[in-house]
Design a protein that fits this description.
This protein is an alpha+beta fold and 158 residues long. Helix content is 29%, strand content 30%.
């Protein structure tokens, strides 16, 4: 049977449990038509690049599917009917990756960095706050920069 990767975007105002219920429904459609889901990854709520049906955020999910084309067509038909599904995309692939996707690896990497620093991640994704810079935290005092530097004034006089 052909192999597919399917990404689903659901409305932000539905709960994670409702998204899981929707995915279980689509899983049932796939299994009724002779296919199976190899892997399901919930990527969580993420910001969208632009508004889709008046939504700025969405629940993202990845499904790795091993099913005949008729099963995919029926699942997509039901997704088009659902008001909770904003967008979806199905791509046929040669083989399914059993390892975590790039999105899940990124999340693990970000969580690991935050634990090492001992602080939680802010909404902007740059770690700690303060200072207005990217690194956060206080900068050490530079001390006397002294030396033979002439004093500068403005207006042409030295």
């Amino acid at each position: 049977m052909p192999l597919y990767e399917h990404v689903l975007l659901a409305r932000q105002d539905v709960t994670s449990q409702q998204v899981e219920t929707m995915i279980d429904t689509y899983k049932g459609v796939i299994e009724q038509n002779g296919g199976r889901l190899e892997k399901i990854e919930m990527w969580g709520v993420k910001s969208l690049a632009y508004r889709i049906k008046k939504n700025r955020k969405a629940h993202f999910a990845l499904l790795n599917i091993d099913a005949p084309p008729a099963a995919i067509a029926e699942m997509e038909r039901q997704m088009q009917i659902s008001e909770d599904v904003l967008r979806f995309m199905t791509v046929r692939v040669e083989d399914l990756d059993s390892e975590p996707s790039a999105m899940m690896q990124k999340r693990d990497r970000d969580d690991r960095k935050d634990r090492e620093r001992g602080r939680r991640r802010d909404d902007d994704g740059f770690g700690g706050g303060g200072g207005g810079g990217f690194g956060g935290g206080d900068r050490p005092d530079r001390g006397d920069r002294g030396g033979d530097r002439p004093e500068r004034t403005f207006g042409g006089e030295a």
